[in-house]
Amino acid sequence: MALNVATLPITVGVGAFLVHDGRLLVVKRTYGTIKGLWSIPSGYVEPHESVLMTLEREVQEETGVVGRAGPLLGMRNRVTQDVNDTFLIFRMEYVSGEPRPDALEVSAAAFLPADELMTSPESAPFTRAAIERFLRAEGMHLDSYIPPAPLKPGEYYLLFR
């Protein structure tokens, strides 16, 4: 029998592609399959949060760096027997701060040269792939469109094109 994706838990995660002075903001996770490898800061969308709010919150929580969400660079959808997980990768603009790990989810945080991360065995495979694909990507930008019905407090409507 074929897998019925509609019955799986659906998760949405976001990741930050934040380059400052030619270096990419990366973290080392304390858990999971990429534990101890450099990866882009990321996290899961919580109830009543837009994807952009999640992105900015997660980057600041994990690294102490303040960034502003920019264009949507890519999307990864992973379906397994257990989950249907969508991961959105956004470019971020550096605002302020120096990397410092939260010591809970992240054991290290740093700005490292992108070219070194692309070949380092200490970089997660997806991080190496993201650098190669997104370093110069334009991405999809947030559109100013708002639906005709007024949004209620706590409602978000985001269109990227």
What report would you give on this structure?
The protein has 161 residues and is an alpha+beta fold. The protein has a single domain, classed as Nucleoside Triphosphate Pyrophosphohydrolase. 18% of the residues lie in helices and 36% in strands. It has 3 helices and 7 strands. It has helices spanning 51-63, 114-119, 125-134; strands at residues 10-20, 23-29, 38-39, 42-44, 66-79, 84-96, 106-113. Strands 1, 2, 3, 4, 5, 6 and 7 form a 7-stranded mixed sheet that branches. A hairpin with an 8-residue loop joins strand 2 and strand 3 (38-39). The longest helix is centred in the middle third of the chain and has 13 residues, at 51-63. It is globular. The termini are far apart.
Tell me, briefly, the overall form.
globular
Question: Number of DSSP strands?
Answer: 7
Biggest sheet statistics: 7 strands, mixed
| SSE class | alpha+beta
CATH-defined fold name: Nucleoside Triphosphate Pyrophosphohydrolase
- Regions with little confidence, pLDDT below 50 for 5+ residues: none
From the structure above, extract its key features.
single chain, 161 residues, alpha+beta, Nucleoside Triphosphate Pyrophosphohydrolase, 7-stranded mixed sheet, globular
Describe the secondary-structure layout:
Layout lengths: L9 E11 L2 E7 L8 E2 L2 E3 L6 H13 L2 E14 L4 E13 L9 E8 H6 L5 H10 L27
Parallel strand pairs: 1-6
Antiparallel strand pairs: 1-2, 1-4, 2-3, 2-7, 5-6
Task: Sum this structure up briefly.
The protein has helices at 51-63, 114-119, 125-134; strands at residues 10-20, 23-29, 38-39, 42-44, 66-79, 84-96, 106-113. It is of the alpha+beta class. The radius of gyration is 16 Å and the shape is globular.
